[in-house]
UniProtKB/TrEMBL annotation:
It is an enzyme of class 3 (hydrolase). Belongs to the glycosyl hydrolase 62 family. GO terms for molecular function: alpha-L-arabinofuranosidase activity. InterPro entries: GH62_arabinosidase, Glyco_hydro_beta-prop_sf. This is Alpha-L-arabinofuranosidase. Keywords: Glycosidase, Hydrolase, Secreted, Signal. Gene3D superfamilies: Glycosyl hydrolase domain, family 43. Residues 1-16 form the signal peptide. One of its GO terms (cellular component) is extracellular region. GO terms for biological process: L-arabinose metabolic process; xylan catabolic process. The keyword Hydrolase applies. It holds the Pfam family Glyco_hydro_62.
Length: 340
């Protein structure tokens, strides 16, 4: 059975404790196991705000807590997605991560240091570390990856926002991706041995861009595919012609790119309303900010291309209001046309 894992802060410790940190995914499988067109089936909403004194509007970017006053992070653990809604929340503002703007977390085990890293946005790209994923009080206070916003981002961000940091390492280097809500995906690089130091203006490049900012918007994530040769999958959230969210996809043989389109258009998309089946009336038209369920928990950020599952945020299509107070909930899509 495949693990959990993905939920950035919805860090299913369950998965972490149940699953080996080493992999069980065959090492000989080729990236060719990925299909070039995708079909999915979705659950209903699995995780939403609790009825408690926090009075949250949404649970999103698994797992930011959202309300009109702003964002922070939540941790929960479970062993079965169908029981996820019963898991208690631990609000991470009670840990040394603290209160204030913290959002869009990613979590992984950095094997060279035997430490868990939580990567998130605070206006800069921030991280905390923890020796024990099952102890949400154990996260360290935020530190930033960059001394300040890299100049290439400042030059290109326009009226966008610097959001959605994502780390992934290969055998030699670690890479930090981020988006600007203005048509650019950025990548910075440092040596594996230097992580988490060494991300600078000079090491930052534009990894992907589009003149139409809606086409390369935000919530990007990069995964390693198992196999004899290096192979990677990039997902980027886009805004469709009707305003709903969907994901585009690319592959590459290096995390540094270049990225080749896989299912990368609104007509042939990775995941969105047009290729996700629901039972009954769809509870959401957007397939928005999410994460693949991983097959490994370490810094390689590896997934099993034969059993794709994506934990995403969706929303009642009739909901309205300011962006921070929208009622995002988390659901899970599972690929139904896997090639293997
Ligand atoms: C993890 O889940 C179990 C079962 O619901 C719960 O008893 C435990 O307190 C949770 N751990 C944390 C750290 O929240």
């Amino acid at each position: 059975m495949l693990p959990f894992l993905a939920l950035a802060t919805v860090l299913c410790a369950a998965a972490a404790s149940k699953l080996p940190l080493g992999g069980h995914v065959s090492n000989t499988r080729q990236a060719a196991a990925l299909t070039s067109s995708f079909k999915w089936t979705s659950t209903g909403p699995l995780i939403g705000p609790k009825s408690d004194s926090r009075k949250l509007a949404g649970i999103k970017d698994p797992a930011s807590t959202a309300q009109a006053s702003g964002y922070n992070l939540a941790y929960l653990n479970f062993t079965d997605f169908n029981k996820a809604d019963a898991a208690a929340f631990y609000y991470l503002d009670q840990s040394p991560i603290g209160t204030g703007y913290r959002a869009a977390p990613q979590v992984f085990y950095f094997a060279p240091q035997k430490l868990w890293y939580l990567v998130y946005q605070t206006g800069n790209a921030a991280y905390s570390t923890n020796k024990d994923i099952a102890n949400p009080t154990g996260w360290t206070a935020p530190k930033t990856f960059y001394p300040s916003q890299p100049s290439i981002i400042t030059q290109n961000i326009g009226s966008g926002y610097w959001v959605d940091m994502w780390a992934i390492c290969d055998a030699a280097n670690c890479h930090l991706f981020s988006s600007d809500d203005n048509g650019h995906l950025y990548r910075s690089q440092t040596a594996l041995a230097n992580f988490p130091s060494g991300f600078t203006s000079a090491s930052t490049v534009i990894a992907l861009s589009d003149k139409n900012k809606d086409n390369v918007f935000e919530a990007s994530c990069v995964y390693a595919l198992p196999g004899d040769k290096p192979s990677y999958l990039l997902l980027v959230e886009a805004i469709g012609s009707d305003g709903t969210r969907y994901f585009r996809s690319w592959t590459a043989t290096s995390i540094a790119g270049p990225w080749t389109g896989l299912a990368d258009s609104e007509a042939s998309l990775f995941a969105g309303a047009s290729n996700v089946a629901f039972s009954g009336t769809p509870w959401t038209k957007s397939i928005s900010h999410g994460e693949m369920v991983r097959s490994l928990t370490d810094q390689t950020i590896t997934i099993d291309p034969c059993h794709l599952r994506f934990l995403y945020q969706g929303m009642d299509p009739s909901a309205s209001g300011t962006y921070n107070s929208l009622p995002w909930r988390l659901g899970l899509i599972t690929q139904t046309n896997s090639a293997c």
